[in-house]
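Subject: design request, 350 residues
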């Protein structure tokens, strides 16, 4: 975990953003940072150290005849009860190489456990486990608007059917297992290297492309732009499954739009018979987008899914540059390279 300092913080408020009928569960969380020295900028993330699912921890412990309070020593030399170590320190999603070498191949730890019974002690087993890893979440607020709080937008991760854990460790912890107002979540500040509101951008238009949880940092951007009295225009492309069930922060975006602070383009992929994505909306508004980006020297931000969305948005940006800027494919590539160098095309994708 390197030099990162984790602080325990309570969840002051947690609200479900997706409709109760939707299988997708996305939550808005408000973490109280008042007992920490964290000072963040918009675009930054919080690193969260999750706790493992207690049912899964018990499943592991039942293969050992020793009590759950058996002392184990961490790699840093700290002594803890096995149950505490397995809950808060151990990575239970990785299958340790040394155990595989000794007991044969396994996709998941659960496949190995029956083979270990009676062969190694609980302490030895724990010594093979890698440390639990932090997960990152974009901060969905600005300190200028919310003070010593950090808001997050977290989607519950569902694992593939063959996985022994049905839900993602950290998202399940943040969305369900951690208790609002009671549990203390270990968080650390994870500053963004480039992704944020550069001082030069205050007088320039910004274009924000954030489908799904990718919208999170842009809520912070809007709070910051308004708090700072930034005098230029803001444009958000948001996309999700349905307008009824998955329109995160609807009231806030619509209020900004009504007051003339925000241009809003929405792509609800499952409202119509054919899919509509944020890049389709970009194509529809190509001339205007080019006006903001090229003629008015705007800044373009993309956040969210790296696998498919960010690639498609990047291709669309190249196409718009070619068409609107009358450029060849090579010229468009060069143009976008320069945009990146000038920090005017910034992405936070995962
Ligand atoms: C910069 C950044 C910003 C982010 N911002 C947000 C945000 O604002 N909101 C948000 O919701 N998410 C965000 N994420 C994603 C987030 O960090 C987590 O990755 C996400 O919540 C899933 O974590 P988890 O612990 O719930 O799932 P995990 O338990 O880590 O599982 C994740 C995946 O790994 C697979 N897996 C787990 N164990 C195994 C195994 N043993 N073998 C093979 N595969 C396995 C699972 O099937 C699953 O698909 C961000 C990520 C980054 C990098
Ligand atoms: N394992 C899980 O349980 C799980 C669940 C959700 C997300 N994720 C992952 O978590 C990350 C963020 O997810 P998220 O919930 O914020 O949003 P997301 O899954 O990326 O979905 C948000 C919107 O993006 C649309 N989309 C799908 N493919 C796209 C593409 N090629 N181009 C543009 N838009 C596209 C989706 O449409 P459609 O879905 O209608 O196609 C949906 O409307 C992603 O990496 C995603 O893969 C994992």
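Subject: RE: design request

Done. Sequence follows.
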């Amino acid at each position: 975990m390197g030099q990162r300092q984790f602080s325990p913080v309570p969840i002051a408020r947690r609200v479900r953003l997706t409709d109760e009928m939707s299988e997708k569960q996305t939550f808005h969380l408000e973490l109280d940072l008042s007992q920490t020295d964290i000072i963040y900028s918009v675009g930054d993330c919080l690193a969260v150290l999750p706790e493992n699912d207690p049912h899964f921890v018990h499943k592991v412990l039942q293969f050992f005849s020793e009590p759950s309070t058996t002392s184990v020593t961490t790699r840093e030399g700290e002594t803890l009860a096995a149950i505490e170590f397995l809950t808060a320190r151990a990575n239970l999603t990785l299958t340790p190489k040394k155990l595989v070498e000794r007991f044969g191949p396994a996709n998941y730890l659960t496949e190995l456990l029956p083979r270990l019974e009676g062969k190694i002690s609980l302490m030895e087993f724990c010594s093979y486990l890698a440390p639990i890893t932090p997960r990152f979440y974009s901060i969905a607020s600005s300190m200028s608007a919310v003070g010593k709080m950090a808001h997050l937008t977290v989607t519950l991760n569902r694992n593939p059917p063959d996985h022994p854990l049905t839900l993602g460790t950290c998202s399940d912890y943040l969305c369900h297992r951690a208790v609002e107002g009671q549990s203390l979540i270990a968080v650390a500040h994870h500053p963004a290297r480039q992704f944020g509101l550069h001082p030069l951008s205050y007088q320039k238009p910004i274009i924000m492309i954030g489908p799904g949880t990718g919208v999170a940092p842009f809520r912070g951007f809007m709070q910051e732009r308004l708090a700072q009295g930034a005098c230029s225009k803001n444009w958000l492309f948001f996309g999700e499954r349905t307008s009824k069930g998955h329109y995160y922060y609807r009231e806030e975006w619509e209020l900004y739009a009504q007051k003339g602070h925000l241009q809003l383009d929405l792509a609800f992929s499952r409202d119509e018979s054919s899919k509509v994505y944020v890049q389709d909306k970009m194509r529809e508004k190509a001339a205007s987008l080019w006006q903001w980006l090229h003629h008015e020297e705007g800044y373009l931000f993309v956040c969210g899914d790296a696998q498919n969305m960010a690639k498609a948005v990047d291709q669309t940006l190249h196409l718009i540059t070619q068409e609107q800027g009358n450029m060849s494919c090579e010229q468009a590539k060069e143009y976008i390279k320069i945009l990146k160098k000038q920090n005017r095309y910034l992405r936070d994708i995962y």
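The first strand starts at residue 7 and ends at 16.
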